[in-house]
Design goal:
The chain is an all-alpha fold. The protein has one domain. 57% of the residues lie in helices and 0% in strands. It contains 2 helices and no strands. The radius of gyration is 20 Å and the shape is elongated. 0% of the residues are buried.
């Protein structure tokens, strides 16, 4: 099993420099979604809730007609 603190190596120095400037992580698994700020979590929950409710309303209204 790999050590979590072991850094992933980039493809080359140019890509590594680009990632450092842009603030990108090397792999999507490095992003800790549980550590996101609460307002961003709540916005995400609202968007998901909005799409689910909209889908259900459209589905139910189509069944009624």
């Amino acid at each position: 099993m790999k050590d979590e603190k072991e850094e992933k190596k980039s493809f080359n120095d140019v890509i590594d420099h680009l990632h450092k400037i842009e603030g990108n992580v090397t792999a999507p698994t490095d992003a800790k979604l549980k550590n996101m700020p609460k307002p961003i979590k709540y916005i995400g929950y609202f968007i998901i809730f909005f799409f689910v409710i909209t889908f259900l309303l459209i589905f139910i209204l189509n069944l009624v007609q």
